[in-house]
């Protein structure tokens, strides 16, 4: 086996996230321990950081270096990266061109069989336009906010509300970034308002540096993604309704969290709070629950349901 081929095999083994005893690596490669040490030094000279740990539990492990070295990808890795680059465009502002360059580099060095698979993806994949306009977040904003979440650092930012062209200063403890549809949201604790808030990240402009560090608070909800998506959907409702569904809450488990909130009342009924852009859409959605229900509010929904019932009755003959 040539030295170059052996180095590629060694790199493929080291990319598995574990510590490799030197003796095991040498046996895998079919070389002497001295040759293995020389190969490790060759990889280090190419920019790969390979940490060596002494002792019975020691060995070699691939670490992170000061610069990005070349990666060794298998065929499934390449297809996964190509598919991701093709389908995730428009989510982060300013990265479409970088994604196209990265995909072109991959395609240039792919073997013919993989090139055909990547070309098939380009030709066959068509994305359905999102219901809401895309709201890509700036790459730098994403980097700053995600770092503040990871390091538990207070974030100061200017935030533009949906109903105003002006911005206001916010000081928050950031916890989670949620993606829903083609929008990004920050779930954070507002230290001035002393409450949990959700922020659209395309309206957020951080004012670095972040800090100081804060002690993480217990999250008030078990499922942050469901909580954020439900709140984001509710913010777009122009009409809200509350109905009592004549079924246990468990029977409505199929209802998406973004559609509204379900509150158990007893073993046989539950309260469903939901909304939509217009009453007709709301009436249709409630009819699709599959269970009888009673309208608590608003009264206008009752009129829409009667109109819809009469239309359905005429259609049925």
TrEMBL record:
The keyword Chloroplast does not apply. Keywords: DNA-binding, Transcription, Transcription regulation. PROSITE patterns: HTH_DEOR_1, WYL. Gene3D superfamilies: Winged helix-like DNA-binding domain superfamily/Winged helix DNA-binding domain. Residues 238-313 form the WCX domain. It comes from the Bacteria. GO terms for molecular function: DNA binding; DNA-binding transcription factor activity. InterPro entries: CBASS_pafABC_assoc_protein, HTH_11, PafC-like, Tscrpt_reg_HTH_DeoR_CS, WCX_dom, WH-like_DNA-bd_sf, WH_DNA-bd_sf, WYL_dom. Residues 140-204 form the WYL domain. SUPFAM superfamilies: Winged helix' DNA-binding domain (SSF46785). Residues 6-61 form the Helix-turn-helix type domain. The keyword Zinc-finger does not apply. Pfam families: HTH_11, WCX, WYL. This is WYL domain-containing protein. It comes from Actinomarinicola tropica.
């Amino acid at each position: 086996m040539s030295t170059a081929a052996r180095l590629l095999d060694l790199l493929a083994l080291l990319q598995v996230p574990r510590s490799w005893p030197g003796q095991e690596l040498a046996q895998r490669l079919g070389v002497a321990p001295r040759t293995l040490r020389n190969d490790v030094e060759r990889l280090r000279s190419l920019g790969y950081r390979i940490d060596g740990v002494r002792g019975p539990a020691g060995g070699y492990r691939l670490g992170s270096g000061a610069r990005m070295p070349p990666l060794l990808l298998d065929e499934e890795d390449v297809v996964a990266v190509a598919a991701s680059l093709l389908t995730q465009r428009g989510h982060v502002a300013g990265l479409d061109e970088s994604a196209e360059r990265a995909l072109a580099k991959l395609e240039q060095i792919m073997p013919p069989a993989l090139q055909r698979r990547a070309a098939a993806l380009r030709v066959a994949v068509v994305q359905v336009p999102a219901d809401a306009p895309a709201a890509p977040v700036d790459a730098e904003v994403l980097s700053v906010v995600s770092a503040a979440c990871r390091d538990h650092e207070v974030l100061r930012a200017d935030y533009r509300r949906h109903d105003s062209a002006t911005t206001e200063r916010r000081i928050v403890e950031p916890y989670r970034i949620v993606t829903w549809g083609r929008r990004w949201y920050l779930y954070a604790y507002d230290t001035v308002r002393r409450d949990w808030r959700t922020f659209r990240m395309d309206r957020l402009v951080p004012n670095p540096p972040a800090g100081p560090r804060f002690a993480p608070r217990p999250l008030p909800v078990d499922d942050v993604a469901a909580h954020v998506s439900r709140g984001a959907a509710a913010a777009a409702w122009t009409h809200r309704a509350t109905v009592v569904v004549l079924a246990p809450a468990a029977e409505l488990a199929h209802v998406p969290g973004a559609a509204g909130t379900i509150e158990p009342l007893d073993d046989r009924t539950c309260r469903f709070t939901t909304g939509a852009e217009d009453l007709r859409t709301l009436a249709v959605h409630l009819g699709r629950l599959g269970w009888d229900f009673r309208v608590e509010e608003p009264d206008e929904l009752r009129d829409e349901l009667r109109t819809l019932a009469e239309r359905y009755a005429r259609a049925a003959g």
